[in-house]
Amino acid sequence: MIQQDVQPRSKHNSEAHELDPLRGVDFSKLERSLRRPRTFLSMFLSVVISAMTLLAMIPLFSVVGLLLWRGGRKLSIADFTQLPPAPLDQNGGFGNAVLGTLVIVAMATLISVPIGLLSAIFLAQSKSDNRLASSVRFAAKVLTGFPSILAGVFAYGLVVMATGGYSAIAGAVALSILMLPTILLTGEDAIRMVPSKMKEAAIGMGTTDTQTVWMVLLPTAVPGILTGVMLAIARAAGETAPLLFTSLFSNYWLLWNGQVTLMRPTASLAVLIYNFSGMPFANQMELAWAAALVLVLMVLTANLIGQSLSRKQINSNQEVE
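^ that's the sequence the OP posted. Answer follows.
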């Protein structure tokens, strides 16, 4: 009789435990309290990391704030429509430098994008044991830390010495060397991030390797590829040393008598800032601050576009998966 009573009770207790899995848990031990070593250490490290993050952001906001204060006062429409002033002139602008920067960077993009994109396709489609692909990837990674002044010296010997003068084309060649590794490595990663299901589906439909690349992989990887292009443009736009050896500077517009003069010295924002920042004249110093603000805004815009495209590709890949 006693055994018969125990069995129903134990069965009843097990059923009650299954209905209430949190039975017997002491919730007071789960409360967050700074008296507990783990909670205190976690809170302390969170505060330290937040403080270090804010400390790291101080130089960035300091530079941007100083540019807005010093450059914003001088910035006007006339700065984009007038030529650099003479030392004692109180007017003038840097319109030719803005145009020169856009033209040089655009030509550098036209040079580096086809080479970088085709190389990225080769690396993404190559097998892991391909020695040529490994060598190209290693060279691209080395170029990411390549000193920019050496790119200028190389373009000087390759273009300036061959053509007999400084030019916008020489500057574009120098900047394309700096842009190439970013476009190549980012493009390879973007192509590799395309879900394998899409590639397998295309192969299953009987497409060739060329059709798979041009009709499936590249259209899907376009946001990631454009991210690399925009990041490369942002880097190239702010370079000064390569342009000192290649395009130098000019006080005139690219258009001369209705013709574009790409084979002559060309103005750029980076070189203008370098030249005017060492001048003892107040007007040119103020123009240097205004030009620096414009250059930072151009680089910031390119970076923001790149980040936006990167998020777009990540979201699209997640939806496909």
